[in-house]
């Protein structure tokens, strides 16, 4: 494993990055709690009149399109502009974009006037954004992962950023460097918010570490290994979600190094 991945969690815990989140109302509390447990500081600021200035104070901006209101849309575009002007990394989670044309328009607007350092979505969303055939149902991916790495590579080159496609296996590319992660637990698909929480963790690592590809790999490994830890003590969805937060809190860089199942391409 790339030894830099081993150091990212320590960087987060030492720097306590402030993550400015404009995010999904269904999972906003989950994102805040997992950021705190990870060692970051969450701020769920989405008021249009406040976001431009608040981005200046932040280590990273997380934009999640899951429950995209008009207020969130205008705030997200303005916040991304501030991020571009103030050199703040942006993680975009294109939740449900295959089902809603409007969300693609918002993504393109952010690309035009702001910045995007990482796109983190499920395999169906990433393949859709890459212009490839994908299988989705609402906000869920039904895709089997075929050509997922190719989709990440294509989208990474188009947006000049790091792209992560999550599923049974997770695929990450920055257009040059690529990897596949085979950690995780099936119960991560049985609780609301696992994907949104992962996007929040990607924002924390990107706010603490310069290499966004390495930061994204580290965040995904952290979430998946914490899921494996949680499953050892909690076999049902309700208790699993609690155990997941606890497992993120107790996660060590040694565990990431020891347990990570990563293939570098």
Automatic annotation (TrEMBL):
Catalysis: reaction(s): 5-(2-hydroxyethyl)-4-methylthiazole + ATP = 4-methyl-5-(2-phosphooxyethyl)-thiazole + ADP + H(+)
- Tell me which residues bind substrate: 44, 193
Q: What is this protein called in UniProt?
A: Hydroxyethylthiazole kinase
Tell me which cofactor or cofactors this protein depends on: Mg(2+)
Sites binding ATP sit at 120, 166
Function per UniProt:
Catalyzes the phosphorylation of the hydroxyl group of 4-methyl-5-beta-hydroxyethylthiazole (THZ).
| Ribosomal protein as UniProt keyword | no
Q: Which GO terms describe its molecular function?
A: kinase activity
Pathway(s) of this molecule: Cofactor biosynthesis; thiamine diphosphate biosynthesis; 4-methyl-5-(2-phosphoethyl)-thiazole from 5-(2-hydroxyethyl)-4-methylthiazole: step 1/1
Short name of one Pfam family:
HK
What's the name of its gene? thiM_1
Q: What is its EC number?
A: 2.7.1.50
Q: Which of UniProt's keywords are assigned here?
A: ATP-binding, Kinase, Magnesium, Metal-binding, Nucleotide-binding, Thiamine biosynthesis, Transferase
Q: Which organism is it from?
A: Clostridium oceanicum
NCBIfam families reported in the protein's UniProt record: PRK09355.1, thiM
UniProt xrefs under CDD domains: THZ_kinase
What family is it from?
Answer: Belongs to the Thz kinase family.
In which domain of life is the source organism classified?
Bacteria
InterPro entries (UniProt xref): Hyethyz_kinase, Ribokinase-like
């Amino acid at each position: 494993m790339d030894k830099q991945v081993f150091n990212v969690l320590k960087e987060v815990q030492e720097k306590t990055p402030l993550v400015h989140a404009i995010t999904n109302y269904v999972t906003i509390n989950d994102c805040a709690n997992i950021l705190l447990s990870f060692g970051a500081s969450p701020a769920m600021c989405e008021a249009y009149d406040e976001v431009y200035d608040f981005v200046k104070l932040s280590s990273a901006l997380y934009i999640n399109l899951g429950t995209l209101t008009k207020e969130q849309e205008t705030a997200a575009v303005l916040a991304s502009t501030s991020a571009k002007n103030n050199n703040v990394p942006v993680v975009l989670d294109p939740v449900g974009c295959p089902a809603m044309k409007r969300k693609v328009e918002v993504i393109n607007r952010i690309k035009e006037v702001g910045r995007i350092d990482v796109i983190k979505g499920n395999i169906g969303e990433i393949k859709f954004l890459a212009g490839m055939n994908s299988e989705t149902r609402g906000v869920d991916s039904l895709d089997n992962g075929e050509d997922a790495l190719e989709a990440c590579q294509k989208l990474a080159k188009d947006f000049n950023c790091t792209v992560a496609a999550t599923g049974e296996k997770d695929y990450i590319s920055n257009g040059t460097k690529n990897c596949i992660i085979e950690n995780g637990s099936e119960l991560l698909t049985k609780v609301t918010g696992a994907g949104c929480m992962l996007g929040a963790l990607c924002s924390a690592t990107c706010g603490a570490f310069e290499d966004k590809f390495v930061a994204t790999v580290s965040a995904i490994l952290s979430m998946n290994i914490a899921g494996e830890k949680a499953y050892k003590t909690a076999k049902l969805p309700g208790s699993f979600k609690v155990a997941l937060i606890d497992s993120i809190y107790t996660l060590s860089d040694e565990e990431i190094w020891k347990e990570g199942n990563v293939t570098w391409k």
